[in-house]
Design brief:
Elements (H helix, E strand, L loop, with lengths): L15 E5 L2 E4 L4 E4 L2 H4 L8 H13 L10 H12 L5 E5 L2 H16 L6 E5 L8 H6 L3 H4 L9 E4 L4 H7 L4 E6 L2 E2 L5 E2 L2 H14 L2 E5 L23 E4 L10 E5 L1 H4 L15 H14 L4 H22 L4 E7 L2 E6 L3 H10 L2 E2 L1 E3 L3 E4 L7 H16 L1
Parallel strand pairs: 3-15, 5-6, 5-7, 7-10, 10-11
Antiparallel strand pairs: 1-2, 2-3, 4-12, 8-9, 11-12, 13-14, 14-17, 16-17
Helix pairs in contact: 2-10, 3-10, 11-13
The structure holds pyridoxal-5'-phosphate (PLP).
Length: about 375
């Protein structure tokens, strides 16, 4: 019989009844250390009191009113994101794909007067599952059977400035890049490469768009990963961790880009509703607490050092550590599915990524003890 829940995902046979911090519990009492955080999304872990209480309080007042009216929670969240970033303005939506779709539309709209519409993207990129973001992404398997996708995206290898320069033409409107490719295999865009992308965008008068859906909101130990490179984009897509598990996405833009989205040009029914933005504000309360991101950086260092030690001790199992902050990857020698199953048997949840990479993205609130236990579990996995 065809399953009532559409079978488009490969799901582990696990169902969680509740969670606390970095731990998830099944109905029958088994517990799992969650180093996947719902794909880098449960940034404050599970059952975080400030987040859950804020959501409950807001739900009891008003959840949704539409964007026909002012939404004070969205105004506050936008102002706080603007104050903490390069941006002058924020647009809220409900997912990463929508944020990237909005970013693509903003780049095209802003460059319409110059008749520039093409966007340079990268091999290994993942930007979502809408037709536009499938076109921007590089994974041909994700596009198969869904074509034709929108035209106007040119793909070049990551960390190759010559290829980028060669791809820029009279119709190029901008460049979209992930500071770290998550789905693509935890592949890091070099800091120097990001700086050169900024420079080449300025040189040609085109726009730099960053997909920080996975790397943003503290994941790398800075609020946004591009801060490490000392650059700012013209427009940026956010989602995943921004709502701490509540669906929320955002596009942050400079005034020069954002001003082109005049009334009626773009919209959303759910986007930026009081409940989602209350969740976003609660996450920001925590992430912007003085010292919080220092803690993420410190914990990331501990996790990375432990992973490197495991790779050194078991080079026949794991060949390399990739990534930055709390977005790390172990390149597996054996098939990834086998390693994931071994982790699960040890009570550790980890994520898949391309290039046979086991992706680790624990909650930003992960404790030192959690990290120690996670490393011990991975050590046992490596030892077979
Ligand atoms: C997850 C992800 C997306 C897509 O987000 P959805 O919420 O699944 O639509 C886009 N870009 C990056 C970098 C992501 O990690």
């Amino acid at each position: 019989m065809f399953p009532s829940l559409l079978p488009n995902f490969i799901r582990a046979d696990l169902a969680f009844a509740h969670g606390e911090g970095a731990w998830l519990y099944t109905e029958d009492g088994r517990r799992f250390l969650d180093f996947g955080a719902g794909i880098a999304t449960s940034s404050l872990g599970h059952g975080h009191k400030h987040l859950t209480q804020t959501i409950a309080d807001q739900a009891g007042k008003v959840m949704h009113v539409s964007n026909l009216y002012r939404v004070p929670q969205a105004e506050r969240l936008a102002q706080r994101l603007v104050d903490a970033s390069f941006a002058d303005s924020a647009f809220f939506c409900n997912s990463g794909a929508e944020a990237n779709e909005g970013m693509i539309k903003m780049i095209r709209k802003a460059m319409t007067p110059l008749a520039r519409y093409r966007i340079i993207c990268f091999d290994g990129a993942f930007h979502g599952r809408t037709l536009g973001t499938l076109a921007a992404g590089s994974n041909a398997a994700y596009r198969k059977g869904f074509g034709p996708v929108p035209e106007g995206f040119d793909h070049v290898p990551l960390n190759n400035m010559n290829a980028v320069r060669d791809a820029i033409g009279p119709e190029t409107a901008g460049i979209i890049v992930e500071p770290i490719q998550g789905d693509g295999g935890v592949r890091v865009a070099d800091m120097r490469f990001l700086q050169d992308l900024r420079a080449v965008c300025d040189e040609f008068g085109i726009l730099l768009g960053l997909d920080e859906v996975q790397t943003g909101m503290g994941r790398t130990g800075r609020l946004f990963a591009h801060e490490w490179a000392g650059i700012t984009p013209d427009v940026m897509a956010l989602a995943k961790g921004i709502g701490g598990g509540f669906p929320l996405g955002a596009v942050l833009a400079t005034e020069a880009v954002g001003k082109h989205l005049t009334p009626g040009t773009h919209g959303t029914t759910f986007g930026g509703n009081p409940l989602a933005c209350a969740a976003g504000n609660a996450v920001l309360d925590v992430v912007l607490t003085p010292g919080f991101l220092d803690g993420v950086r410190r914990k990331a260092g501990v996790l990375r050092a432990g992973l490197e030690q495991i790779v050194r001790a078991h080079p026949a199992v794991f060949s390399e550590v990739r990534g930055d902050g709390l977005l790390l990857g172990l390149v597996c020698v054996a098939p990834l599915a086998q390693m994931q199953a071994a982790c699960e048997a040890e009570g550790l949840l980890a994520l898949p990524a391309s290039e046979n990479v086991l992706r680790l993205a624990p909650p930003l609130t992960v404790t030192d003890n959690d990290i120690e236990m996670g490393l011990a579990k991975l050590g046992r996995v490596a030892a077979g």
